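Figure caption, in words: inputs first, then the predicted bound structure.
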Amino acid sequence: MNLFQALENGYNLLKTNNINSYKIDAELLLSDSLNISKERLILNLKRVINNETYNNFLLKINRRRAKEPIAYILKKKEFWKNKFYINKNVLIPRPETEHLVEETLNIISTNQKKRLLEIGVGSGCLIISVLKERINCSAFGIDCCKNAIKIAKINAKLHQVQNRINIFKTDVDNLNSGKYDLILSNPPYIDKHKLKYLGVSEYEPTKALNGGINGTEILIKVVKKSSKLLKINGKLIIEIGSDQKYKMINILKKNKFYINKITKDLSNLDRCITSTKIA
Ligand SMILES: C[S@@+](CC[C@H](N)C(=O)[O-])C[C@H]1O[C@@H](n2cnc3c(N)ncnc32)[C@H](O)[C@@H]1O
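Bound structure (S-adenosylmethionine present):
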């Protein structure tokens, strides 16, 4: 069997399971099994595939047929300008979260030395992307999930920022020390009653998605904690659900934050609030 035939089999298996992205998915999975780029695969379709590689490809195809996200099968996801190692213990990095990187970079200029905190680091994609762009900054990253901490540490090493970031396991409730110039957070913000209806993947960790009642339980904790941990004039940048803007603006104001900016995502939905601790 050659690569062309293997790929055709992959397309058909995914298509019969209603995977709309069957073409790109099969190509990514086959190039992953061969350990070559997708471009190289397409240029070498007449090459023969051995049984071991074909079986490895079929195993991945079957995982995809069961609707496992492609990023978990490939164990990687691109975010901002980099690739991050991921597995099922962390949320798959989302393009909308890149707005938080952008907002942070708008606030901290290239050579500034700032002390940052991320609450809920997950894979580390957010804070690591910022540290790579702002080489004089240092950071703390916390998460309540010990397996997520392991992944964030792997990514910090992979991107060579491990000397500028301290990643540790703790719940936001138990974080009581430190003074920061800027705090970032993309906490879980989906209403716990809506989780199963929203079509979010059953493969992703509940801890990363479930924001409790109204989806704002952890967001509120983040705001209250940040109010204590930020320096005066320090910035808080949070990702929110598109229907949480007014509630979160109120909570921020009650906790002595000035609202600088609401950023919309590419679907034109309110997604990110930038605010300043004023008292
Ligand atoms: C939506 S994910 C975001 C992950 C990553 N920052 C990103 O943007 O892709 C939220 C993260 O917050 C963590 N988390 C949830 N509740 C927490 C809490 N009470 N204290 C600390 N971390 C929490 C979850 O384990 C998860 O890794």
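Residues 51-65 form the longest helix (15 residues).
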